């Protein structure tokens, strides 16, 4: 599935908890980062990269998802296509079961 120019792959189905998961690797990352996340209930969801102040650097995914596990790769660029500077960022998943945030470090 391609959403907003990103290839999103449905991962193997595993038992979904009532609150989905969010993982990323590698961390710290260089050129790219893979995010693996679960959406336990269907509905609207978004995956965003935020800077330390909470401002949106890039909306990676935004749309309506079926329940399941997904993987996507981020190329480390902002909304304008420029590579983000080294430092700390947040990966934020918002979906019907709640919001989950993970701290990222770009080297």
What are the defining features of this structure?
single chain, 107 residues, mainly beta, 5-stranded antiparallel sheet, 4-stranded antiparallel sheet, disordered N terminus
Question: What can you see in these coordinates?
Answer:
The chain is mostly beta strands and 107 residues long. Helices cover 0% and strands 57% of the residues. The protein is built from no helices and 9 strands. It has strands at residues 2-3, 6-10, 22-25, 33-39, 43-50, 56-65, 68-74, 87-95, 98-106. The strands form 2 sheets. It has a 5-stranded antiparallel sheet with strand order 1-2-7-4-3, with no helix packed on it. It has a 4-stranded antiparallel sheet with strand order 6-5-8-9, with no helix packed on it. It is globular and about 35 Å long. Residues 1-7 and 10-16 have low confidence and may be disordered.
Task: Write a concise synopsis of the structure shown.
The protein has 107 residues and is an all-beta fold. It contains no helices and 9 strands.
SSE string: EEEEEEEEE
Proportion of residues in helical segments: under 10%
Per the principal axes of the C-alpha atoms, what is the gross shape? globular
User: Biggest β-sheet: count, sense, barrel?
Assistant: 5 strands, antiparallel
- Rg is 13 Å
State the end-to-end distance.
Answer: 29 Å
Arithmetic mean of pLDDT: 86
Identify the strand order in the major beta sheet.
1-2-7-4-3
Write the layout of secondary structure elements.
Layout: E1 2-3, E2 6-10, E3 22-25, E4 33-39, E5 43-50, E6 56-65, E7 68-74, E8 87-95, E9 98-106
Antiparallel strand pairs: 1-2, 2-7, 3-4, 4-7, 5-6, 5-8, 8-9
